[in-house]
Specification:
It contains 9 helices and no strands. The protein is mainly α and about 170 residues long.
Length: about 170
């Protein structure tokens, strides 16, 4: 190793957590993952909860967790069968919102629709992508280069502490 080489960062997740997470990025349910890796559904849920804690996205959606896992390079993105569909800028905005926000109200706020309409917007982009669900959509978006390596997403659906907003208002 030369002085300009940097050693790879150690994995945050255990081998078993990575096995579970590697299937999550394909949009698999906990039940399907449990069957695939011969674990109980409870153990799969426990591994995903541990991954959320380790990646600092507690209480996040599965899509937000997937984005955090891929950004941290804990698992590879899912394989694709072809190039990305011709997404509009709005479609890309929906994908980014799903990857970074847990609540439909937050996703709707980002994409400019009511919370009640956010699910339909997400479903339309999922269908356009040929994804199984929103989790798989996030994985595919990473594979297609639509979601880039940004800092791991913070859970944006948590209330901002009052002290933080008071400080921001004073700046």
């Amino acid at each position: 190793m030369t002085t300009t080489d940097t050693p790879p960062s150690p994995a945050l997740l255990t081998h078993d957590q990575q096995r579970v997470a590697a299937r999550l990025v394909y949009g698999a349910s906990n039940q399907l993952i449990a069957r695939q890796v011969n674990l109980t559904v409870f153990t799969v849920a426990s591994h995903l909860a541990a991954a959320r804690r380790k990646l600092d996205v507690p209480n996040s959606s599965r899509a937000v967790l997937t984005h955090a896992l891929l950004t941290a390079r804990e698992v590879p993105p899912p394989s694709t069968t072809g190039p990305a569909p011709e997404f509009t800028e709005h479609d890309r905005q929906v994908i980014r919102a799903v990857a970074e926000h847990t609540l439909n109200s937050d996703i709707g706020g980002v994409i400019g629709v009511r919370a009640d309409d956010a699910r339909a917007e997400i479903d339309a982009v999922v269908a356009k992508a040929g994804a199984h669900n929103a989790v798989h959509l996030v994985g595919l978006a990473r594979a297609w280069g639509i979601l880039t390596d940004t800092a791991p997403p913070r859970l944006r659906s948590q209330p901002v502490p009052a002290a933080a907003t008071a400080t921001a208002g004073a700046a």
